[in-house]
Specification:
Blueprint lengths: L8 E4 L3 H12 L4 E4 L3 H10 L7 E4 L2 H7 L5 E4 L5 H12 L7 E4 L5 H10 L5 E8 L1 H7 L2 E5 L5 H11 L2 E2 L20 E2 L9 H31 L3 H11 L7 H11 L1 E2 L2 E5 L13 H12 L4 H14 L1 H10 L11 H34 L5 H7 L10 H11 L10 H24 L4 H13 L6 H12 L13 E3 L10 E3 L7
Helix pairs in contact: 1-6, 5-8, 8-11, 8-12, 8-14, 9-10, 11-12, 12-18, 14-17, 14-18, 15-16
Bound molecules: nicotinamide 8-bromo-adenine dinucleotide phosphate.
Amino acid sequence: MAEQTQADIGLIGLAVMGENLALNIADHGFNVAVYNRTTQVMKNFIAANPDTPGGLIGCESVADLLAAVKKPRKIIVLVKAGAAVDTVAQQLIGAGLEKDDLIIDCGNSQWTDTIRREKDYSRQCRFFGSGVSGGEVGARFGPSLMPGGDAQAWRHLEPIWKAIAAKVDPGTGKAIETAKPGQPVKDGIPCTAYIGENGAGHYVKMIHNGIEYIDMQLISEAYFLMRNLLSLQPDELSPIFARWNQGDLDSYLIEITADILKQRDPRDADSFLVDRVLDTAQQKGTGKWTSINALDMGIPANAIAEAVFARCLSALKDERIEAAKHLAGPRYTYSGDRDELINAVHDALYCSKICAYAQGFQLMRAAEGEYHWKFDFASIAGIWRGGCIIRARFLQKITDAYTRAPGLVNLLLDPYFKEQLHKGQSHWRTVVALAAQAGLAAPAFMSALAYYDGYRSAQLPANLLQAQRDYFGAHTYERTDEPRGALFHLDWPAPDRPEIAMPAPGSAV
Ligand code: NBP
Protein backbone atom coordinates (compact mmCIF):
# COMPACT_ATOMS: atom_id res chain seq x y z
CA MET A 1 0.00 0.00 0.00
CA ALA A 2 2.93 2.36 0.70
CA GLU A 3 3.81 2.00 -2.96
CA GLN A 4 0.20 2.90 -3.82
CA THR A 5 0.57 6.42 -2.42
CA GLN A 6 3.50 7.34 -4.62
CA ALA A 7 1.80 8.64 -7.73
CA ASP A 8 2.94 12.12 -8.78
CA ILE A 9 -0.32 12.79 -10.53
CA GLY A 10 -3.73 11.20 -11.17
CA LEU A 11 -5.68 11.03 -14.41
CA ILE A 12 -9.37 10.30 -14.98
CA GLY A 13 -10.67 9.36 -18.43
CA LEU A 14 -8.74 6.86 -20.52
CA ALA A 15 -10.13 7.54 -23.97
CA VAL A 16 -7.74 8.61 -26.73
CA MET A 17 -6.54 11.85 -25.11
CA GLY A 18 -6.26 10.48 -21.57
CA GLU A 19 -4.29 7.37 -22.57
CA ASN A 20 -1.83 9.36 -24.63
CA LEU A 21 -1.33 12.07 -22.02
CA ALA A 22 -0.83 9.46 -19.26
CA LEU A 23 1.86 7.72 -21.34
CA ASN A 24 3.55 11.02 -22.12
CA ILE A 25 3.69 11.90 -18.40
CA ALA A 26 4.98 8.43 -17.47
CA ASP A 27 7.64 8.67 -20.23
CA HIS A 28 9.06 11.66 -18.39
CA GLY A 29 9.57 9.65 -15.22
CA PHE A 30 6.43 10.64 -13.34
CA ASN A 31 4.28 8.00 -11.72
CA VAL A 32 0.67 8.26 -12.89
CA ALA A 33 -2.42 6.82 -11.16
CA VAL A 34 -5.21 6.27 -13.69
CA TYR A 35 -8.96 5.71 -13.36
CA ASN A 36 -11.69 5.23 -15.94
CA ARG A 37 -15.44 4.96 -15.37
CA THR A 38 -15.51 1.68 -17.30
CA THR A 39 -12.98 -0.36 -15.33
CA GLN A 40 -12.09 -2.73 -18.14
CA VAL A 41 -10.72 0.18 -20.17
CA MET A 42 -8.30 0.93 -17.32
CA LYS A 43 -7.31 -2.75 -16.98
CA ASN A 44 -6.62 -3.04 -20.71
CA PHE A 45 -4.54 0.14 -20.61
CA ILE A 46 -2.42 -1.06 -17.67
CA ALA A 47 -1.95 -4.49 -19.27
CA ALA A 48 -0.88 -2.90 -22.56
CA ASN A 49 1.71 -0.63 -20.91
CA PRO A 50 3.63 -2.65 -18.30
CA ASP A 51 6.97 -0.85 -18.62
CA THR A 52 6.76 2.91 -18.64
CA PRO A 53 9.70 4.84 -17.13
CA GLY A 54 7.57 6.49 -14.42
CA GLY A 55 5.08 3.68 -13.89
CA LEU A 56 1.29 3.50 -14.00
CA ILE A 57 -1.05 2.59 -11.14
CA GLY A 58 -4.49 1.32 -12.14
CA CYS A 59 -7.32 2.42 -9.82
CA GLU A 60 -10.81 0.95 -9.76
CA SER A 61 -12.52 3.86 -8.00
CA VAL A 62 -12.14 7.58 -7.53
CA ALA A 63 -11.39 6.93 -3.83
CA ASP A 64 -8.53 4.55 -4.81
CA LEU A 65 -7.19 7.22 -7.12
CA LEU A 66 -7.16 9.83 -4.33
CA ALA A 67 -5.40 7.36 -2.04
CA ALA A 68 -2.74 6.71 -4.67
CA VAL A 69 -1.68 10.31 -5.38
CA LYS A 70 0.76 12.37 -3.29
CA LYS A 71 -0.57 15.56 -1.66
CA PRO A 72 -1.31 18.19 -2.71
CA ARG A 73 -3.00 15.96 -5.26
CA LYS A 74 -3.05 16.86 -8.91
CA ILE A 75 -5.86 15.12 -10.79
CA ILE A 76 -6.16 15.52 -14.55
CA VAL A 77 -9.69 15.13 -15.93
CA LEU A 78 -9.94 14.09 -19.60
CA VAL A 79 -13.56 13.14 -20.01
CA LYS A 80 -16.13 14.33 -22.53
CA ALA A 81 -16.50 18.11 -22.26
CA GLY A 82 -19.71 19.29 -20.60
CA ALA A 83 -21.69 17.72 -17.76
CA ALA A 84 -19.22 14.82 -17.31
CA VAL A 85 -16.59 17.27 -16.00
CA ASP A 86 -18.92 18.35 -13.18
CA THR A 87 -19.89 14.76 -12.47
CA VAL A 88 -16.23 13.80 -12.05
CA ALA A 89 -15.41 16.93 -10.02
CA GLN A 90 -18.27 16.15 -7.63
CA GLN A 91 -17.17 12.52 -7.35
CA LEU A 92 -13.67 13.67 -6.43
CA ILE A 93 -14.99 16.13 -3.85
CA GLY A 94 -17.30 13.45 -2.44
CA ALA A 95 -14.38 11.03 -2.17
CA GLY A 96 -12.35 13.44 -0.02
CA LEU A 97 -10.50 15.84 -2.31
CA GLU A 98 -8.88 18.54 -0.14
CA LYS A 99 -8.69 22.30 -0.47
CA ASP A 100 -5.05 22.31 -1.59
CA ASP A 101 -5.65 19.62 -4.21
CA LEU A 102 -5.93 20.50 -7.90
CA ILE A 103 -8.41 19.33 -10.48
CA ILE A 104 -7.00 20.02 -13.95
CA ASP A 105 -9.65 19.87 -16.65
CA CYS A 106 -7.73 19.21 -19.88
CA GLY A 107 -10.78 18.73 -22.13
CA ASN A 108 -12.21 21.19 -24.61
CA SER A 109 -14.38 22.93 -22.02
CA GLN A 110 -15.94 26.29 -22.73
CA TRP A 111 -14.03 28.99 -20.83
CA THR A 112 -17.20 30.30 -19.21
CA ASP A 113 -17.78 26.82 -17.70
CA THR A 114 -14.24 26.89 -16.32
CA ILE A 115 -14.82 30.34 -14.78
CA ARG A 116 -18.00 28.98 -13.18
CA ARG A 117 -16.34 25.75 -11.96
CA GLU A 118 -13.35 27.55 -10.48
CA LYS A 119 -15.83 29.63 -8.43
CA ASP A 120 -18.22 26.78 -7.59
CA TYR A 121 -15.48 24.46 -6.33
CA SER A 122 -13.22 27.09 -4.74
CA ARG A 123 -14.14 26.00 -1.19
CA GLN A 124 -13.32 22.34 -1.88
CA CYS A 125 -10.28 22.42 -4.19
CA ARG A 126 -8.33 24.46 -6.72
CA PHE A 127 -9.88 24.05 -10.14
CA PHE A 128 -7.62 24.48 -13.18
CA GLY A 129 -8.58 24.53 -16.84
CA SER A 130 -5.77 23.64 -19.19
CA GLY A 131 -6.10 23.88 -22.95
CA VAL A 132 -4.34 20.96 -24.65
CA SER A 133 -3.60 21.25 -28.36
CA GLY A 134 -2.03 18.83 -30.78
CA GLY A 135 -4.58 16.02 -30.85
CA GLU A 136 -3.62 12.52 -29.82
CA VAL A 137 -0.08 12.69 -31.26
CA GLY A 138 0.50 15.94 -29.38
CA ALA A 139 -0.86 14.46 -26.16
CA ARG A 140 1.48 11.47 -26.59
CA PHE A 141 4.72 13.19 -27.58
CA GLY A 142 4.41 16.87 -26.68
CA PRO A 143 1.32 19.07 -26.77
CA SER A 144 1.00 22.79 -26.45
CA LEU A 145 -0.47 23.38 -22.97
CA MET A 146 -2.41 26.48 -21.91
CA PRO A 147 -3.08 26.32 -18.16
CA GLY A 148 -5.41 28.72 -16.35
CA GLY A 149 -6.31 28.83 -12.67
CA ASP A 150 -4.96 29.92 -9.31
CA ALA A 151 -1.49 31.45 -9.85
CA GLN A 152 -0.18 30.00 -6.55
CA ALA A 153 -1.30 26.49 -7.47
CA TRP A 154 0.48 26.62 -10.84
CA ARG A 155 3.83 25.87 -9.17
CA HIS A 156 2.59 22.37 -8.31
CA LEU A 157 1.71 21.62 -11.92
CA GLU A 158 4.54 23.51 -13.61
CA PRO A 159 7.32 20.85 -13.46
CA ILE A 160 5.10 18.18 -15.03
CA TRP A 161 3.58 20.53 -17.61
CA LYS A 162 7.03 21.81 -18.66
CA ALA A 163 8.37 18.27 -18.92
CA ILE A 164 5.59 16.88 -21.12
CA ALA A 165 4.97 19.90 -23.37
CA ALA A 166 6.38 20.20 -26.89
CA LYS A 167 9.75 21.95 -27.05
CA VAL A 168 11.10 24.56 -29.41
CA ASP A 169 14.68 25.18 -30.38
CA PRO A 170 15.80 28.39 -28.63
CA GLY A 171 17.98 29.29 -31.63
CA THR A 172 15.50 28.88 -34.47
CA GLY A 173 12.19 29.14 -32.56
CA LYS A 174 11.09 26.00 -34.44
CA ALA A 175 9.46 22.96 -32.86
CA ILE A 176 11.85 20.12 -32.05
CA GLU A 177 10.62 17.00 -33.82
CA THR A 178 8.45 14.68 -31.75
CA ALA A 179 10.43 11.99 -30.01
CA LYS A 180 9.97 8.28 -30.42
CA PRO A 181 8.21 6.43 -27.55
CA GLY A 182 10.47 6.25 -24.53
CA GLN A 183 12.69 9.03 -25.87
CA PRO A 184 11.04 12.19 -24.63
CA VAL A 185 12.28 15.58 -25.79
CA LYS A 186 13.89 17.12 -22.73
CA ASP A 187 15.80 20.11 -24.06
CA GLY A 188 14.36 23.24 -25.60
CA ILE A 189 11.80 25.82 -24.56
CA PRO A 190 8.59 24.14 -23.33
CA CYS A 191 5.37 25.09 -25.10
CA THR A 192 3.54 25.93 -21.90
CA ALA A 193 3.31 28.88 -19.54
CA TYR A 194 0.82 30.09 -17.00
CA ILE A 195 -1.90 31.94 -18.94
CA GLY A 196 -4.04 33.52 -16.23
CA GLU A 197 -6.84 33.09 -13.70
CA ASN A 198 -9.82 30.72 -13.94
CA GLY A 199 -10.95 30.24 -17.60
CA ALA A 200 -7.99 32.05 -19.23
CA GLY A 201 -6.31 28.83 -20.43
CA HIS A 202 -9.47 27.46 -22.01
CA TYR A 203 -10.19 30.87 -23.55
CA VAL A 204 -6.76 31.03 -25.20
CA LYS A 205 -7.19 27.43 -26.42
CA MET A 206 -10.49 28.46 -28.00
CA ILE A 207 -8.78 31.36 -29.80
CA HIS A 208 -6.13 28.90 -31.00
CA ASN A 209 -8.90 26.81 -32.50
CA GLY A 210 -10.59 29.82 -34.09
CA ILE A 211 -7.28 30.71 -35.74
CA GLU A 212 -6.90 27.06 -36.79
CA TYR A 213 -10.25 27.32 -38.64
CA ILE A 214 -9.15 30.34 -40.66
CA ASP A 215 -5.62 28.96 -41.29
CA MET A 216 -7.16 25.78 -42.77
CA GLN A 217 -9.71 27.71 -44.83
CA LEU A 218 -7.05 30.02 -46.30
CA ILE A 219 -4.84 27.11 -47.31
CA SER A 220 -7.85 25.37 -48.87
CA GLU A 221 -8.71 28.50 -50.85
CA ALA A 222 -5.10 28.78 -52.08
CA TYR A 223 -5.35 25.17 -53.30
CA PHE A 224 -8.77 25.81 -54.88
CA LEU A 225 -7.68 28.93 -56.78
CA MET A 226 -4.47 27.40 -58.15
CA ARG A 227 -6.28 24.21 -59.05
CA ASN A 228 -9.03 25.99 -60.96
CA LEU A 229 -7.20 28.93 -62.48
CA LEU A 230 -4.13 26.95 -63.53
CA SER A 231 -5.75 23.52 -64.00
CA LEU A 232 -3.08 21.93 -61.79
CA GLN A 233 -3.37 18.34 -60.57
CA PRO A 234 -2.92 17.56 -56.86
CA ASP A 235 0.55 16.08 -57.42
CA GLU A 236 1.55 19.31 -59.21
CA LEU A 237 0.24 21.37 -56.30
CA SER A 238 1.96 19.27 -53.64
CA PRO A 239 5.52 20.48 -54.47
CA ILE A 240 4.28 24.09 -54.45
CA PHE A 241 3.10 23.71 -50.85
CA ALA A 242 6.28 21.78 -50.00
CA ARG A 243 8.31 24.72 -51.34
CA TRP A 244 6.21 27.23 -49.42
CA ASN A 245 6.93 25.17 -46.33
CA GLN A 246 10.61 26.12 -46.68
CA GLY A 247 9.82 29.84 -46.43
CA ASP A 248 7.78 32.22 -44.33
CA LEU A 249 4.67 30.01 -44.58
CA ASP A 250 6.56 27.13 -42.92
CA SER A 251 3.95 25.44 -40.70
CA TYR A 252 2.43 22.11 -39.77
CA LEU A 253 -0.74 22.79 -41.79
CA ILE A 254 1.20 23.64 -44.98
CA GLU A 255 3.38 20.55 -44.43
CA ILE A 256 0.40 18.20 -44.14
CA THR A 257 -1.27 19.88 -47.14
CA ALA A 258 1.76 18.95 -49.28
CA ASP A 259 1.44 15.36 -48.00
CA ILE A 260 -2.33 15.16 -48.53
CA LEU A 261 -2.09 16.41 -52.13
CA LYS A 262 0.31 13.70 -53.22
CA GLN A 263 -1.66 10.89 -51.57
CA ARG A 264 -3.14 8.43 -54.09
CA ASP A 265 -6.55 6.89 -53.50
CA PRO A 266 -5.91 3.52 -51.80
CA ARG A 267 -8.79 2.14 -53.89
CA ASP A 268 -7.49 3.46 -57.20
CA ALA A 269 -3.82 4.24 -57.73
CA ASP A 270 -4.61 6.41 -60.77
CA SER A 271 -6.57 8.92 -58.66
CA PHE A 272 -5.73 11.25 -55.83
CA LEU A 273 -7.45 10.79 -52.50
CA VAL A 274 -8.23 14.51 -52.16
CA ASP A 275 -10.46 14.20 -55.24
CA ARG A 276 -12.40 11.40 -53.57
CA VAL A 277 -12.98 13.23 -50.29
CA LEU A 278 -16.44 14.80 -50.26
CA ASP A 279 -16.26 18.60 -50.11
CA THR A 280 -18.27 18.99 -46.91
CA ALA A 281 -16.44 20.08 -43.74
CA GLN A 282 -17.62 19.19 -40.27
CA GLN A 283 -17.00 21.14 -37.09
CA LYS A 284 -17.03 20.59 -33.36
CA GLY A 285 -17.86 24.13 -32.29
CA THR A 286 -14.73 25.95 -31.08
CA GLY A 287 -14.64 28.15 -34.23
CA LYS A 288 -18.27 28.97 -33.62
CA TRP A 289 -17.56 29.82 -29.97
CA THR A 290 -14.76 32.16 -31.09
CA SER A 291 -17.04 33.90 -33.57
CA ILE A 292 -19.89 34.23 -31.06
CA ASN A 293 -17.45 35.67 -28.55
CA ALA A 294 -16.22 38.17 -31.18
CA LEU A 295 -19.80 39.27 -31.82
CA ASP A 296 -20.52 39.49 -28.09
CA MET A 297 -17.48 41.69 -27.49
CA GLY A 298 -17.91 43.74 -30.70
CA ILE A 299 -14.51 42.76 -32.11
CA PRO A 300 -14.23 42.51 -35.91
CA ALA A 301 -12.95 38.92 -36.25
CA ASN A 302 -14.71 38.65 -39.61
CA ALA A 303 -12.17 36.33 -41.25
CA ILE A 304 -12.41 33.83 -38.38
CA ALA A 305 -16.22 33.89 -38.58
CA GLU A 306 -16.01 33.59 -42.37
CA ALA A 307 -14.04 30.37 -41.96
CA VAL A 308 -16.89 28.97 -39.83
CA PHE A 309 -19.49 30.06 -42.39
CA ALA A 310 -17.39 28.54 -45.19
CA ARG A 311 -17.71 25.17 -43.41
CA CYS A 312 -21.46 25.76 -43.02
CA LEU A 313 -21.77 26.53 -46.75
CA SER A 314 -19.72 23.46 -47.63
CA ALA A 315 -22.12 21.35 -45.59
CA LEU A 316 -25.01 22.37 -47.89
CA LYS A 317 -23.74 19.90 -50.48
CA ASP A 318 -27.10 18.79 -51.91
CA GLU A 319 -28.36 22.36 -52.14
CA ARG A 320 -25.14 23.45 -53.85
CA ILE A 321 -25.40 20.68 -56.42
CA GLU A 322 -28.91 21.83 -57.24
CA ALA A 323 -28.00 25.56 -57.23
CA ALA A 324 -25.08 24.87 -59.60
CA LYS A 325 -27.64 23.84 -62.22
CA HIS A 326 -29.50 27.16 -61.95
CA LEU A 327 -27.14 29.95 -60.97
CA ALA A 328 -24.71 31.16 -63.60
CA GLY A 329 -21.19 32.46 -62.95
CA PRO A 330 -18.81 34.25 -65.31
CA ARG A 331 -16.92 32.59 -68.16
CA TYR A 332 -13.28 33.18 -67.40
CA THR A 333 -9.98 31.64 -68.44
CA TYR A 334 -6.76 32.74 -66.81
CA SER A 335 -4.21 33.56 -69.48
CA GLY A 336 -1.43 35.04 -67.37
CA ASP A 337 1.86 33.59 -66.24
CA ARG A 338 1.69 30.40 -64.14
CA ASP A 339 4.55 31.20 -61.73
CA GLU A 340 3.37 34.76 -61.28
CA LEU A 341 -0.02 33.53 -60.14
CA ILE A 342 1.52 30.98 -57.78
CA ASN A 343 3.62 33.74 -56.20
CA ALA A 344 0.57 35.98 -55.96
CA VAL A 345 -1.42 33.26 -54.18
CA HIS A 346 1.49 32.77 -51.79
CA ASP A 347 1.46 36.47 -50.89
CA ALA A 348 -2.34 36.55 -50.62
CA LEU A 349 -2.14 33.63 -48.21
CA TYR A 350 0.55 35.26 -46.10
CA CYS A 351 -1.20 38.64 -45.91
CA SER A 352 -4.56 37.01 -45.08
CA LYS A 353 -2.88 34.91 -42.40
CA ILE A 354 -1.43 38.04 -40.79
CA CYS A 355 -4.94 39.55 -40.64
CA ALA A 356 -6.41 36.34 -39.20
CA TYR A 357 -3.86 36.27 -36.37
CA ALA A 358 -4.33 40.00 -35.80
CA GLN A 359 -8.03 39.26 -35.23
CA GLY A 360 -7.30 36.42 -32.80
CA PHE A 361 -4.95 38.61 -30.77
CA GLN A 362 -7.41 41.52 -30.85
CA LEU A 363 -10.01 39.20 -29.38
CA MET A 364 -7.67 38.19 -26.57
CA ARG A 365 -6.90 41.87 -25.95
CA ALA A 366 -10.63 42.59 -25.56
CA ALA A 367 -11.11 39.52 -23.34
CA GLU A 368 -8.49 40.89 -20.93
CA GLY A 369 -10.84 43.78 -20.16
CA GLU A 370 -13.96 41.65 -20.17
CA TYR A 371 -12.68 38.88 -17.85
CA HIS A 372 -9.99 40.77 -15.87
CA TRP A 373 -7.07 38.74 -17.21
CA LYS A 374 -3.58 39.99 -18.01
CA PHE A 375 -2.15 38.14 -20.98
CA ASP A 376 1.48 37.91 -22.03
CA PHE A 377 1.00 37.82 -25.81
CA ALA A 378 4.66 37.09 -26.57
CA SER A 379 4.39 34.06 -24.31
CA ILE A 380 1.10 32.88 -25.85
CA ALA A 381 2.55 33.08 -29.38
CA GLY A 382 5.63 31.29 -28.01
CA ILE A 383 3.53 28.43 -26.62
CA TRP A 384 1.92 27.96 -30.04
CA ARG A 385 5.29 27.54 -31.80
CA GLY A 386 5.29 23.83 -31.10
CA GLY A 387 2.95 20.95 -30.30
CA CYS A 388 -0.27 22.49 -31.58
CA ILE A 389 -2.04 22.41 -34.93
CA ILE A 390 -1.21 26.03 -35.85
CA ARG A 391 2.50 25.65 -35.05
CA ALA A 392 4.49 27.71 -37.52
CA ARG A 393 7.67 29.66 -38.06
CA PHE A 394 5.38 32.72 -38.32
CA LEU A 395 4.61 32.52 -34.58
CA GLN A 396 8.20 33.50 -33.78
CA LYS A 397 7.49 36.75 -35.62
CA ILE A 398 4.46 37.34 -33.38
CA THR A 399 6.53 36.57 -30.27
CA ASP A 400 9.12 39.09 -31.53
CA ALA A 401 6.41 41.71 -32.20
CA TYR A 402 4.95 41.50 -28.68
CA THR A 403 8.41 41.33 -27.12
CA ARG A 404 9.26 44.59 -28.89
CA ALA A 405 5.94 46.19 -27.91
CA PRO A 406 3.90 44.33 -25.26
CA GLY A 407 1.13 46.94 -25.54
CA LEU A 408 0.85 46.66 -29.35
CA VAL A 409 -2.73 47.64 -30.23
CA ASN A 410 -2.94 45.51 -33.37
CA LEU A 411 -0.46 43.10 -34.94
CA LEU A 412 -0.90 44.87 -38.30
CA LEU A 413 0.89 47.89 -36.81
CA ASP A 414 4.07 45.97 -35.94
CA PRO A 415 6.91 47.08 -38.27
CA TYR A 416 7.61 43.55 -39.57
CA PHE A 417 3.97 42.74 -40.33
CA LYS A 418 3.37 46.20 -41.77
CA GLU A 419 6.23 45.66 -44.20
CA GLN A 420 4.91 42.22 -45.22
CA LEU A 421 1.45 43.66 -45.88
CA HIS A 422 2.88 46.52 -47.91
CA LYS A 423 5.00 44.09 -49.92
CA GLY A 424 2.25 41.53 -50.49
CA GLN A 425 -0.90 43.59 -50.88
CA SER A 426 -0.68 44.14 -54.63
CA HIS A 427 -0.56 40.35 -55.19
CA TRP A 428 -3.29 39.85 -52.57
CA ARG A 429 -5.59 42.28 -54.42
CA THR A 430 -4.82 40.61 -57.74
CA VAL A 431 -5.79 37.20 -56.34
CA VAL A 432 -9.02 38.48 -54.77
CA ALA A 433 -9.93 40.25 -58.05
CA LEU A 434 -9.13 37.10 -60.06
CA ALA A 435 -11.31 35.00 -57.74
CA ALA A 436 -14.18 37.46 -58.23
CA GLN A 437 -13.67 37.60 -62.01
CA ALA A 438 -13.55 33.83 -62.29
CA GLY A 439 -16.48 33.30 -59.91
CA LEU A 440 -14.43 31.15 -57.53
CA ALA A 441 -15.44 31.29 -53.87
CA ALA A 442 -12.57 32.64 -51.78
CA PRO A 443 -14.41 34.09 -48.77
CA ALA A 444 -11.48 34.01 -46.35
CA PHE A 445 -9.07 35.81 -48.71
CA MET A 446 -11.78 38.36 -49.42
CA SER A 447 -12.87 39.01 -45.86
CA ALA A 448 -9.27 39.25 -44.63
CA LEU A 449 -8.65 41.89 -47.30
CA ALA A 450 -11.86 43.70 -46.31
CA TYR A 451 -10.58 43.72 -42.71
CA TYR A 452 -7.23 45.15 -43.81
CA ASP A 453 -8.87 47.87 -45.89
CA GLY A 454 -11.43 48.65 -43.20
CA TYR A 455 -8.87 48.80 -40.42
CA ARG A 456 -6.55 51.12 -42.37
CA SER A 457 -9.40 53.49 -43.36
CA ALA A 458 -9.63 56.71 -41.38
CA GLN A 459 -12.98 57.29 -43.11
CA LEU A 460 -15.67 54.61 -43.51
CA PRO A 461 -19.28 54.93 -44.73
CA ALA A 462 -20.64 54.61 -41.19
CA ASN A 463 -21.46 58.35 -41.29
CA LEU A 464 -24.30 57.56 -43.68
CA LEU A 465 -25.24 54.47 -41.71
CA GLN A 466 -25.50 56.37 -38.43
CA ALA A 467 -27.54 59.10 -40.15
CA GLN A 468 -29.93 56.38 -41.34
CA ARG A 469 -30.22 55.13 -37.75
CA ASP A 470 -31.06 58.61 -36.54
CA TYR A 471 -33.57 59.05 -39.39
CA PHE A 472 -35.69 56.00 -38.67
CA GLY A 473 -35.01 55.44 -34.99
CA ALA A 474 -33.80 58.71 -33.41
CA HIS A 475 -30.61 56.87 -32.41
CA THR A 476 -28.60 60.15 -32.46
CA TYR A 477 -25.20 60.83 -34.06
CA GLU A 478 -21.89 62.41 -33.16
CA ARG A 479 -20.55 65.28 -35.31
CA THR A 480 -17.10 65.58 -36.85
CA ASP A 481 -16.88 69.17 -35.61
CA GLU A 482 -17.87 68.48 -31.99
CA PRO A 483 -16.04 66.61 -29.20
CA ARG A 484 -16.53 62.82 -29.10
CA GLY A 485 -19.50 61.80 -26.95
CA ALA A 486 -21.63 64.85 -27.76
CA LEU A 487 -24.87 63.53 -29.30
CA PHE A 488 -27.27 65.16 -31.74
CA HIS A 489 -30.60 64.35 -33.33
CA LEU A 490 -32.57 65.80 -36.22
CA ASP A 491 -36.28 65.38 -36.91
CA TRP A 492 -35.79 64.11 -40.49
CA PRO A 493 -36.61 65.07 -43.20
CA ALA A 494 -36.44 68.62 -42.07
CA PRO A 495 -34.08 71.04 -43.76
CA ASP A 496 -35.63 73.93 -41.81
CA ARG A 497 -35.77 72.25 -38.39
CA PRO A 498 -33.01 72.84 -35.86
CA GLU A 499 -30.63 70.11 -34.83
CA ILE A 500 -31.21 69.03 -31.21
CA ALA A 501 -28.25 68.49 -28.88
CA MET A 502 -28.98 65.38 -26.85
CA PRO A 503 -27.88 64.70 -23.25
CA ALA A 504 -24.85 62.45 -23.07
CA PRO A 505 -25.73 58.88 -22.07
CA GLY A 506 -25.69 58.50 -18.28
CA SER A 507 -25.88 62.25 -17.62
CA ALA A 508 -28.30 63.55 -14.98
CA VAL A 509 -30.32 65.55 -17.56
P1 NBP B 1 -14.16 11.64 -25.08
O1 NBP B 1 -14.48 13.07 -25.21
O2 NBP B 1 -14.64 10.72 -26.14
O3 NBP B 1 -14.73 11.11 -23.68
C1 NBP B 1 -14.59 9.77 -23.35
C2 NBP B 1 -14.10 9.60 -21.94
O4 NBP B 1 -14.97 10.27 -21.02
C3 NBP B 1 -14.11 8.13 -21.51
O5 NBP B 1 -13.00 7.91 -20.69
C4 NBP B 1 -15.42 8.02 -20.76
O6 NBP B 1 -15.45 6.94 -19.85
C5 NBP B 1 -15.40 9.33 -20.02
N1 NBP B 1 -16.67 9.74 -19.46
C6 NBP B 1 -17.81 10.13 -20.05
BR1 NBP B 1 -18.10 10.15 -21.85
N2 NBP B 1 -18.77 10.47 -19.21
C7 NBP B 1 -18.23 10.29 -18.00
C8 NBP B 1 -18.72 10.46 -16.70
N3 NBP B 1 -19.95 10.95 -16.49
N4 NBP B 1 -17.92 10.14 -15.68
C9 NBP B 1 -16.70 9.69 -15.88
N5 NBP B 1 -16.15 9.51 -17.11
C10 NBP B 1 -16.92 9.82 -18.14
O7 NBP B 1 -12.60 11.44 -24.87
P2 NBP B 1 -11.39 12.06 -25.71
O8 NBP B 1 -11.66 12.03 -27.17
O9 NBP B 1 -10.16 11.44 -25.17
O10 NBP B 1 -11.41 13.59 -25.29
C11 NBP B 1 -11.27 14.01 -23.95
C12 NBP B 1 -11.36 15.52 -23.89
O11 NBP B 1 -10.31 16.06 -24.67
C13 NBP B 1 -12.65 16.10 -24.49
O12 NBP B 1 -12.99 17.26 -23.80
C14 NBP B 1 -12.28 16.45 -25.89
O13 NBP B 1 -13.07 17.48 -26.43
C15 NBP B 1 -10.86 16.85 -25.72
N6 NBP B 1 -10.09 16.58 -26.94
C16 NBP B 1 -9.11 17.36 -27.23
C17 NBP B 1 -8.38 17.13 -28.36
C18 NBP B 1 -7.28 18.02 -28.64
O14 NBP B 1 -6.69 17.98 -29.69
N7 NBP B 1 -6.96 18.84 -27.70
C19 NBP B 1 -8.61 16.09 -29.21
C20 NBP B 1 -9.60 15.29 -28.90
C21 NBP B 1 -10.33 15.56 -27.75
P3 NBP B 1 -16.00 5.50 -20.32
O15 NBP B 1 -14.83 4.79 -20.91
O16 NBP B 1 -16.50 4.89 -19.09
O17 NBP B 1 -17.09 5.78 -21.33
